[in-house]
Amino acid sequence: MSTGRPNWQLTEREWAQRTEVVGGQKLTRPPGETGNEAFDAEPLSTPRIPRFISRTEWRAAEPAQTDTTHFWPEWGGIAIHYEGGGKEMRPQHTPDTAIPHWDDCYFQVRRIQHVHQNPLPLVGGEKYWDISYNYLVCHHGYTFVGRGLGYQPGANGTRWHNERYYAICGLIGSDDPQPPQAMLDEIKAVADWVRAYDRAGANVKGRHVKGHRDFIDTKCPGQLYSYIGKGTFD
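Structure for N-acetylmuramoyl-L-alanine amidase, as requested:
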């Protein structure tokens, strides 16, 4: 895997052939598919490969621990989040310099991880062992790998829901415009990904994509909630 800046002009097939590690696991075909090399068929295997930005690429800090033991997403599914109040969509995507700029998506994800691992004493907030989301999707249509595949998230509000639902965060705030199609399409791709690779929601009758507000009293996931109701991510 290249540790340098990704080539944002990669075709879908090139993205599929990328050597990528998510959640400590090399990406392979979904269960039941055959073939000796990952994603060597044309057309691409379902689901579409999300446009992953690895933890190495966004310069993630090391997690304090990990937890794959207490996670059963087949009995839950997928929880959609947003970043809360204010404007969160960053105008830049790829960094202008070797060090990500505060106004680009890379810096935004690093800031979220830092706050989750090091909450400010006067502000409060829970201290997490890593960024609390499994994946974070920017409005440019790319997916930052958070805790990744197979790891229990910390963002869903209760231990019960963290043990059963993947946490996917759209990097959008309440004061931002409606989410662009690129973000919606990429969230759908990530949802399909965890369904195919970790059977998210497989044992649940009915709809298994929820909003954070379905679990606790919160406005999260803001504008994204209406798209859950429309079945955009199913």
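The first strand starts at residue 21 and ends at 22.
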